[in-house]
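Practice problem: predict the structure.
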Amino acid sequence: MKTKTYKQATIDLLRSLQDLGWQVTYTLKVNHARSPDGSTILLFKPQAVWCGAIEGNESMTSASKRARSLFLDMRVIDVATLVQSAKDHAAWEASR
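Answer:
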């Protein structure tokens, strides 16, 4: 089976996140998704997914400056793995 392109993988993951209740934005240069509880943001850069924790009334721009790359290949993971990685990152961020 042929591996998806990064662009197709991004679209597929964003659609799956939207189905899970995440707030998704497709129209920006860097597409992003915000968790249903508003505490986590995923930024879909050209070949990587970055994760950041949103604290209180913090803006997405401010949170994205502290985001870190998740070490996974978005072309081959499923949305459950992506969400779990985001939760793990948020827990790590909170423990710092």
